[in-house]
Amino acid sequence: MNYLLASASPRRRELLTMVGFGPFEVVPSGADESAVRGLTPAETVRSLALLKGCDVLSGREDDVLVISADTVVAVDGQILGKPRDAADAYRMLSLLSGRTHQVHTGISLMTHQKTVSDVVSADVTFRPLSEEEIRRYVESGEPMDKAGAYGIQGKASLFVSGLNGDYYTVVGFPLCRFSELLSEFGVTLFT
């Protein structure tokens, strides 16, 4: 069986490599993510993970296992996606300052015969941030390709005063849950 990661995320690629999964091929999805609207944050990431997986699996006839995921940051039920620009990143970080928010990662594994999916969520608390800290972080460029305008594995780790849940869910790929779902296909990371 061949393994396909339906994601262009370098973090997901690095995490799978870190735990010794593979070899796998990266095949980013071209699915129209705007088709998923009006759902809760958790329902949104599950739907997007499934949509991406179906897109990559579609048209393939070989024996493949497609792995897909999607992550959103939510505060007060409002989804914070990737920032459009620096002003949007500043707005998001200001909204998260001194508050607890949720990070939801949907994960899907599928073959032509079987699909399993789940959502893993974590609560992240930011300490109060000064305008200067937010401005400098935005100017670093780090927030621009990340849900909620921050990466917990980077400079924004300095903002996190609390975490309740799986750290790797916040990074964008819940490794523990992935290994559990993978076992449903008879694949284990420890042989």
Structural commentary:
Helix 3 crosses helix 4. 37% of the residues are buried. The protein has helices at residues 10-18, 41-57, 86-96, 131-139, 167-171, 175-183; strands at 2-5, 25-26, 64-75, 78-80, 100-110, 115-126, 160-164. The protein is of the alpha/beta class. Helix 1 links the parallel strand 1 (2-5) and strand 2. Strands 1, 2, 3, 4, 5, 6 and 7 form a seven-stranded mixed beta sheet that branches. It is built from six helices and seven strands. It is elongated. The longest helix has 17 residues, at 41-57.
Give the helix/strand layout:
Layout: E1 2-5, H1 10-18, E2 25-26, H2 41-57, E3 64-75, E4 78-80, H3 86-96, E5 100-110, E6 115-126, H4 131-139, E7 160-164, H5 167-171, H6 175-183
Parallel strand pairs: 1-2, 1-3
Antiparallel strand pairs: 3-4, 3-5, 5-6, 6-7
Helix pairs in contact: 3-4
Q: Sum up the overall morphology in one term.
A: elongated
Mean pLDDT: 95
Q: Which structural class do the helices and strands define? A: alpha/beta
Termini, distance in Å?
Answer: 16 Å
Summed up, the helix count is 6
Based on CA atoms alone, the radius of gyration comes out at 17 Å
Q: What percentage of the residues does DSSP assign to strands (E)? A: 25-35%
Number of β-strand runs: 7
Helix content: 25-40%
Oligomer state of the chains in this structure? single chain
Biggest sheet features: 7 strands, mixed
Order of helices and strands: EHEHEEHEEHEHH
List low-pLDDT spans: none
